[in-house]
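> example.struct
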């Protein structure tokens, strides 16, 4: 089987499904930044509830302080993953946008 060279002119670069496939490929099955954000926000809600309980003197768990610190660590990791993934997603969008522009400009692109 011969390998054909990739040419942006052969595909519809405005196809949203293409962007989704590219993101899936680049992220190698890892969650999108939106999913990381949702998980982080869920843990932040839980952390806030625990902090409220602690402030009211209600000790729901014998190791409440440890749970609070653990949640803070998890939140930090999720925030980092969210930021890194968002960066990768933006880079994919930028590359696709550049290819769209090149496709639209055609020969004019070379003169820029």
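> example.seq
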């Amino acid at each position: 089987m011969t390998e054909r060279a990739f040419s942006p002119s052969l595909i519809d670069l405005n196809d949203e499904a293409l962007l989704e496939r590219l993101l899936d490929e680049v992220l190698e099955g890892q969650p999108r930044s939106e999913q990381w954000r949702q998980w982080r926000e869920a843990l932040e809600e839980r952390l806030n509830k625990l902090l409220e309980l602690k402030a009211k003197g209600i000790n729901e768990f014998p190791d409440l302080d440890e749970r609070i610190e653990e949640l803070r660590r998890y939140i930090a990791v999720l925030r980092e993953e969210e930021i890194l993934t968002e960066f990768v997603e933006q880079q994919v969008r930028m590359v696709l946008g550049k290819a769209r522009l090149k496709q639209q400009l055609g020969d004019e692109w070379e003169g820029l």
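> remarks
The two ends are 36 Å apart (CA to CA).
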